[in-house]
Design goal:
Strand content of chain A: 25-35%
Largest sheet of chain A: 9 strands, mixed
CATH class of chain B: Alpha Beta
Largest sheet of chain B: 3 strands, antiparallel
CATH superfamily of chain A: Class I glutamine amidotransferase (GATase) domain
Number of strands of chain B: 3
CATH class of chain A: Alpha Beta
Number of helices of chain A: 5
Strand content of chain B: 25-35%
CATH topology of chain B: Mth169, Chain: A
Radius of gyration of chain B: 17 Å
Strand order of the largest sheet of chain B: 2-1-3
CATH superfamily of chain B: Phosphoribosylformylglycinamidine synthase subunit PurS
Oligomer: heterodimer
Radius of gyration of chain A: 16 Å
CATH architecture of chain B: 2-Layer Sandwich
Strand order of the largest sheet of chain A: 2-1-3-4-11-10-9-6-7
Shape of chain A: globular
CATH architecture of chain A: 3-Layer(aba) Sandwich
Number of domains of chain B: 1
Number of helices of chain B: 2
Order of helices and strands of chain B: EHEHE
């Protein structure tokens, strides 16, 4: 499978994604500089974490106008798989490919730690290697991960089963204390209505080797790889 | 063509959580400003632009706010436009 990892000015998790896919999951990967508009030669695009354009104005607000985003939009419309991680999620929201906005964390602090996540929807191309209700241990690292949508949109997301991961405790209980940033309904990941664009605040690329404290991130990438193989 | 100056205020829509506003409020309470009831934060921009007339400048500002300066999911905006003194 051929992955493209998009590098915006200020992306800083692009090489981690590249490493995870190439060295741990043995996939073909290439970097895509944000000035490049053509992205058709890939099976899956990854918008990595970081601070594109220094988070000026709002997270992701300027990156959404990078030339590559035209290509990403077309790629997504044709059903291509797109994964936005952390800042990548924020860019996809600003671009209107995913709902909601990330507000600043309730604590106003940058939070960098392992969290537990409950898989709410295991039918997506990004989670199909997981079980519904399974608890994943994946780290977050953000100052603005406080997912916000207005009530009608939240209800729509629930109805359409588009909330994919929620912050929980080690036993899978979704509680207020296990919510690290104040996100509405403990939401950590959502998918678009077509089911091919996922945004997640946690960083799966940071937990793909035992040395890093967890290998649960592999499950996200393996799900992607598995779903595309099956399609063929 | 004339030169216009736009002053743009971006504020959070009512009901959107404003953690900075909350922290500033509690800090003001600590400083003894007991009468302060509410603080909300926002952004302020000044933009100078060339346009045919104020109407055209206003429409362009609307585009700029909607497309880049504000996120309509959580923010609202208003702008005042005046002709820049020569």
């Amino acid at each position: 499978m051929r992955f493209g990892v998009i590098t915006f000015p200020g992306s800083n998790c692009d090489y981690d994604c590249y490493w995870a896919l190439k060295n741990i999951l043995s996939q073909e990967v290439e970097f895509i500089w944000h000035k490049q508009e053509r992205v058709d030669d890939f099976d899956c695009l990854i918008l990595p974490g970081g601070f594109s354009y220094g988070d000026y104005l709002r997270t992701g607000a300027i990156a959404k106008y990078s030339p590559v985003m035209k290509g990403v939009r077309r790629f997504a419309q044709k059903g291509g798989l797109v994964l936005g991680i952390c800042n990548g999620f924020q860019i996809l929201q600003e671009a209107g490919l995913l709902p909601g906005v990330m507000l600043q964390n309730e604590s106003l602090r940058f939070i960098c730690k392992y969290v537990y996540l409950r898989v709410e929807n295991a039918q997506t191309p990004f989670t199909r290697g997981c079980q519904k209700g399974e608890v994943l241990k994946i780290p977050i690292a953000h100052a603005a991960g406080n997912f916000f949508v207005e009530r009608p949109t939240l209800q729509k997301l629930r109805r359409e089963n588009r909330i994919v991961l929620r912050y929980c405790d080690g036993e899978g209980r979704v509680t207020k204390t296990s919510n690290p940033n104040g996100a509405v309904d403990n939401i950590a990941a959502v998918i678009n209505d077509n089911g091919n664009v996922l945004g997640m605040m946690p960083h799966p690329e940071r937990c793909v080797e035992p040395l890093l404290g967890s290998t649960d991130g592999r499950k996200i990438f393996q799900s992607i790889i598995g779903s595309r193989d099956e399609e063929r | 063509m004339k030169i216009f100056k736009a002053r743009i205020y971006i504020t959070l829509k009512p009901g959107v959580f404003d953690p900075q506003g909350k922290v500033i409020l509690s800090s003001l309470e600590t400083l003894g400003h007991k009468g302060v009831q509410r603080v909300s934060t926002g952004k302020y921009f000044e933009i100078e632009l060339v346009a045919e007339d104020a109407e055209v400048a206003k429409r362009e500002m609307e585009d700029i706010c909607q497309g880049l300066l504000a996120n309509p999911v959580i923010e609202k905006w208003n702008h005042r436009i005046s002709e820049a003194p020569k």
